[in-house]
Prior knowledge:
Strand order of the largest sheet: 1-2
Largest sheet: 2 strands, antiparallel
Strand content: under 5%
Structural class: mainly alpha
Shape: extended
Number of strands: 2
Order of helices and strands: EHHHHEH
Number of helices: 5
Helix content: 40-55%
Distance between the termini: 40 Å
Amino acid sequence: GGLKSISVDCLRDRGFVQACEQDGFAFPFDRSVHVLRLALASDDPEDGGCPSLPPPSPRPAPLPRPKGRSTSEAVRVVGAGATVAVAHVLEMAAGVVSQLTAEGRAAIN
């Protein structure tokens, strides 16, 4: 399939933040990856899905650069309108981390 973009707000509404907390913000991210996969697999909220967003314009607007704010506040400001298109990247990253973890365990044993 193609790349799907969804809103951060939709992902948050599906419980992504709570899933990350339940995962302890640590690998292997089982709960959070599950929520993300459901969000990207369907447009139907009943199935845990998020509707697809239209493709971005060819000339993206510049990101706001809030002055006098902490990094976390700036991330919230920028992230509020951002989209998520990360399922493939997360799967690749999880695979790399899994492989590195397995190689590290093998080296220790």
